[in-house]
Amino acid sequence: xxxxxxxxxxxxxxxxxxxxxxxxxxxxxxxxxxxxxxxxxxxxxxxxxxxxxxxxxxxxxxxxxxxxxxxxxxxxxxxxxxxxxxxxxxxxxxxxxxxxxxxxxxxxxxxx
Length: 112
Fold this sequence. Notes:
It contains three helices and six strands, in the order E-E-H-E-E-E-E-H-H. The protein is of the alpha+beta class. It has a four-stranded mixed beta sheet with strand order 1-4-5-2.
C-alpha cells in the first residue's frame, strides 16, 4: 500500500479539495480514491486530518428527488414530535430530555 502525501494545514496544492470544499462547490468525490491529506497540529493530541480529492475528477452533486425530499421532511417532523404528548413542539426535541420541555417539566410555571 502506497502512503499518501501529507501537507501542512492550508498548504495543499491547487487542484485538491476536501469533501466539504467539494460540497461547497456543488461537487462530490464521485468514487475516486483519496490522493493526499492535510494535517493540522493540535496541542496534547494527535493532529486533525482531512483527506483530499482531485477537483478535476469530482462529479456534480446528485439533485434531490421528490421522494428524498419527502423522506427528509418526515424525518424532521419525527424529530419535532414529542413522544409523550404527540404534539409538534416546533423545535427539535432535545435528546437529553427525550420529550418536549412542557412534558419534561410539568410543574414549571410559564411567565408570559
